[in-house]
Amino acid sequence: QVQLVESGGGLVQAGGSLRLSCAASGRTFSSYARGWFRQAPGKEREFVARISWNGASTYYADSMKGRVTISRDNAKNTVYLQMSSLKPEDTALYYCAAGTYPLTTTPLVAYWGQGTQVTVSS
């Protein structure tokens, strides 16, 4: 069974940092683009960041540029999202994704994780 399992979410004060991880199992995702999306209550799921299959290309949502870094370790089938200078408006359920490059919209996602909650207090 193919699974993407996120971890690393939690409660943090504004200005703080978190590192999210997403471990894949059930198949190898080394040829897939990997990424992160988020969804706040009452809002649509939105793109956060993505990385190409070999890590050569990364892309970030304008709202996150300069505050997040996406990386991947294909040997571990894992992708990471390092977030810093967090703001209360970053509060959301963060979803790991794998799918077709450029992986910046939800129709390009083939696999989703179950989500990990990030809450930023003011």
Summarize the structure.
The protein is mainly β and 122 residues long. The protein has strands at residues 3-7, 10-13, 18-25, 33-39, 46-51, 58-60, 68-73, 78-83, 92-99, 109-112, 116-121.
SSE diagram, text form:
Elements: E1 3-7, E2 10-13, E3 18-25, E4 33-39, E5 46-51, E6 58-60, E7 68-73, E8 78-83, E9 92-99, E10 109-112, E11 116-121
Parallel strand pairs: 2-11
Antiparallel strand pairs: 1-3, 3-8, 4-5, 4-9, 5-6, 7-8, 9-10, 9-11
Could you give the order of the helices and strands?
EEEEEEEEEEE
Overall average residue pLDDT: 96
* End-to-end gap: 40 Å
Strand content: over 45%
Oligomeric status of the shown chains?
single chain
Helix content: under 10%
- What is Rg? 13 Å
Biggest sheet layout: 7 strands, mixed
Please, how many helices? 0
Structure classification: mainly beta
Count of β-strands: 11
Query: Which geometry do the CA atoms define?
Result: globular
What are the segments in which pLDDT stays under 50 over at least 5 consecutive residues?
none
Write structural notes for this entry.
The structure is a single chain. This protein has 122 residues and is mainly beta. 0% of the residues lie in helices and 52% in strands. Strands 2, 4, 5, 6, 9, 10 and 11 form a 7-stranded mixed β-sheet that branches. Strands 1-3-8-7 form a 4-stranded antiparallel β-sheet, with no helix packed on it. The model has no long low-confidence stretch (mean pLDDT 96).
